[in-house]
Amino acid sequence: MPELPEVETTRRGIAPHIQGKRIRDIVVRNSSLRWPVPVAELQSLQRCQITSVERRGKYLLLSTSKGTVIIHLGMSGSLRIAKADEPPMAHDHVDLTLSDGAMLRYTDPRRFGCWLFTSEDPYDHELLNELGPEPLNDEFDLEYLYQASRGRKVAVKQFIMNSHVVVGVGNIYANEALFLAGIHPKRAAGKISRQRYERLVPAIKEVLGQAIEQGGTTLKDFVGGDGKPGYFKQSLNVYGRGGEPCVTCDRPLKEIRMGQRTTVFCKFCQT
Predict the structure, then answer these.
(1) Which active-site residues does the annotation give?
(2) Quick check: 58 and 139 in contact, CB under 8 A?
(3) pLDDT per residue over 143-197, tens digit each?
(4) What's the pTM value of the predicted model, to 2 decimals?
(5) Residue 219 in this model has a pLDDT that exceeds 60
(6) What are phi and psi of 262, to 5 degrees?
(7) Distance CA 80, CA 116 (A)
(8) 35, 57, 121, 150: which could join 167 in a potential S-S bond, CB 3.0 to 4.6 Å?
(9) What share of the chain is helix, strand, coil (3-state, %, to 5)?
(10) Long-range contacts, stretch 211-214, CB < 8 angstroms, 24+ apart
(11) What pLDDT shows up at residue 237?
């Protein structure tokens, strides 16, 4: 599933090609995504200018004078820039054609993504209005995360992956951040000290920031490619390395399942 860095890389990849352009047409070949696509509302945006391309959590927001298109990539979705005359493939469900002939094409084999529309403030939409802070913004700081954790019995890994607490800390990035902070993923969030959260907050910011920076090398894929940035290519310290030596102490990393997600950690370096 595309996580925050992949979605931000997507935003950066498509924005220069669509922002400021007018919408010529929107073609919906399959409206049966996670929720029904509001075809008539989307097609009413013809001749509207795309004024901004923003991201909130893992949602992309295409703003116009009439309202905002809310896009989620789901499990397997991707966006790329294609030529208007490029024939669609089996899983190309939505095309947004622009005034200059370029086309934003949405591909989603599993159809768990969404294309929605709101004429109201998109940040008040039911999908967005209860999301936690952005992890790279100033409001996500030590004081916020420490106070949010008080009284929580849930494991800290699940705590930081909760989008109501903070958005965009997916499984890979939670594994990596907890390793950098030296915190065991199963430790109860409410029992972790302030000093340890002081290490965890910058670790989350560092891991996500590096992932977005690495994603920048894939921006070319959004034009004529498959539109999938892939997970960041920097060396992972723990994720996907169960049984391999810890990069710090050289002892084998342990792999377990938590909430049906792969969790890898060092039981000696993370306590």
Answers:
(1) 2-3, 58, 261
(2) no
(3) 999 999 999 999 999 999 999 999 999 999 999 999 999 999 999 999 999 999 9
(4) 0.91
(5) no
(6) -65, 130
(7) 18
(8) 57
(9) 30, 25, 45
(10) 211/5, 211/173, 212/5, 212/8, 212/9, 214/5
(11) 95
